[in-house]
Amino acid sequence: MASPSPYFLYLILLFLLPLYVVAQTYQKIELGSSLTAALNINSSWRSPSGDFAFGFQQIRAGEFLLAIWFDNIPEKIIIWSPTIDGEKLVEEGSKIQLSEDGQFRLTDARGEKVWDAQLTGSGNVLYAAMFDTGNFVLVSQDSNLWESFNQPTDTIVPTQIMKRDSNLVARYAEKNYSRGRFRFRMQGDGNLVFYVTSFLWDTVDLISRAYWASNTVNQGYQFVFNQSGYIYLADNNGSILYSFTSKETSSTNYYQRAILDYDGVLRHYVYPKTTNGTARNPMNWSMQRSEPSNICDIKETQGSGACGYNSYCSFGDDQRPKCSCPPG
Predict the structure, then answer these.
(1) pLDDT confidence of 304, banded at 50, 70, 90?
(2) Is residue 80 pLDDT above 90, yes or no?
(3) Alpha-carbon distance 97 to 91, whole Å?
(4) First to last CA, the chain
(5) How far is 135 from 48, CA to CA, in rounded Å?
(6) Tens of pLDDT along 258-301?
(7) Cα 215 to Cα 13: distance, rounded to the nearest angstrom
(8) pLDDT in tens, 223-270
């Protein structure tokens, strides 16, 4: 029997290569898998590179947050957590499970449901996948039925897109992951808008006036954070209407994130992936850009201002607002 020609073998390898590459970009989680929140136990599913992990992160003694975070650096910065009204933290013994019938559900230590993924599309979940991009996905035969990139919390990362009618919601405080007062919304009418609410329990429909807007009604289509580190608002033809970043920052060399901070400012941060930090590129998160430039410019008529009612705002040297009570 004649041996296959080198050309034939080359075609086989060429055909198989994309499948192999795709297979290496995510960690597959089988039906029936689960994670349990437990002290001093690694309760997470990591992406193949280890850049990201999905699981339980301990926030306080005996209290955990279901989340996705940067896992290859000392500071495990969270980029996603589920949208839950009220307290997001769960106690030790809580569980996230991908059931045999494809349901993805968070339960507390008593087995009561806290949150579940709302699936879209048709078909059954075959497995879950933790991608090297930071996206966690529930996969069917033909499509993704749910993905964390489509349910952002307060952060977006490279390759993530905010489509119309999606928003970021700031946390209440730096270490309090409950909903805060600020919103960053890619509206259905194409306008990109920052809002501040009058009260913590306000919904998007009850929000007071905007404190920043792109003024792109009937033009804006999606807010993009691309692989090259550019963050911009585009129309439906891909043309840039507003650029949040002014220079390229390679995702090959830097971890990156854009977060709507608890003070209502959208900030772009980078962290070098190499271990030899310098004064110019220190081994920590450094801010590249922020919007708005001075959050204290928000007036009190705009949803109680940057600091809330009965307080005033001053802009600090660290580019963050300082909230103080008036004298008397």
Answers:
(1) low
(2) yes
(3) 16
(4) 98
(5) 12
(6) 999 999 999 999 999 976 555 556 688 999 999 988 887 776 54
(7) 50
(8) 999 999 999 999 999 999 999 987 788 888 999 999 999 999 999 999
**Cβ pair 58, 40 in contact under 8 A:** no
> What is the average pLDDT score of the chain?
84
Contact at 8 Å (CB) between 276 and 282? Answer: no
Are the beta carbons of 197 and 208 closer than 8 angstroms?
yes
Query: Measuring CA to CA, how many Å separate 74 from each of 51, 55, 312?
Result: 11, 17, 35
User: In sequence order, what are the residues at sequence separation of 6 or more whose Cβ sits closer than 8 angstroms to the Cβ of residue 125?
Assistant: 31, 98, 102, 103, 104, 119, 138, 139, 140, 145
User: What is the chain's length?
Assistant: 328
Q: What is the mean pLDDT of residues 83-98?
A: 91
What is the Cα–Cα distance from 201 to 86, expressed in whole angstroms?
9
* Tokens matching residue 78: 């969270």
What pTM does this model have? Answer: 0.85
The DSSP line for 59-122 is EETTEEEEEEEE-SSSS--EEE----SS---EETT-EEEE-TTS-EEEE-TTS-EEEE----SS
Q: Provide the 10 A C-beta neighbour count for residue 237.
A: 6
Q: CA-based diameter of the chain, in Å?
A: 98
206 pLDDT higher than 60: no
Cβ neighbours of 278 (radius 10 Å): 9
For residue 292, say if its preceding peptide bond is cis, omega within 30 degrees of 0: yes
